[in-house]
Fold this protein.
Amino acid sequence: MTTPASLLSQVEAGIAWITLNRPQQRNALDIPTLKALHALLDAHEADPAVRVLVLTGTGRSFCAGADLAEWAEAEACGELETYGWTEAAHALMTRLHGLAKPTIAAINGTAVGAGMDLSLCCDFRIAAQSARFKAGYTGMAYAPDAGASWHLPRLIGAEQAKRLLFLDELWGAERALGVGLVGEVCADDALLQVAGELATRLAAGPTFAFAQTKALIRDGASRSLAGQLVAEQAAGLLCGRSEDAGEALRAVAEKRTPHFIGR
């Protein structure tokens, strides 16, 4: 597929690198970018050559959230509630969160509002030392509208979520690491290397089993333990029938490292 200029995408060694590419707008999300990113996720999900996705940004910002110029234009036209940004953003967040393949956010700078929410939808978050996080919603007299109120309490607990959302504080990378908002912090110039190393490990793994595990974790919060055990049994049956499971058993018998193909 043709990728618009607002996004950069390349696939190498099973890793799809997606880069938000609107540096003059601090990689803010306008509607065309939201829809293009959604379409790109669909394409990578369907591509068997892609086993892991890494999302990052060009320049000094990961993503500044909603495009305020587009927002102001819609307000000037009396279309703020109907111009479609929220619907496009919600569709994208749902798609990214529900992706079967492992996802990594390599956070290279400020992540504000929906930009922070975009990172929260990923399975892993690696922050550069200079990364900064800000909810941004209450500072504009808004409540969260792209998933922060769902993700944050689950990741960092209700009180820390309220602190970040109510007080609209700017959190540095180390504070984000301390509360569990990100899983790792590294030097700015090592970010893509560190993200690439994690992506390479994931790409070499049993990605079919990863997909089943993601679904179990994602859906388990709404189940009882008994219900989750039933779901685990069903997922185990699917994994046991996979080619990767057969390869794992052969590798044990032959005393070698397994070669997984993701199915």
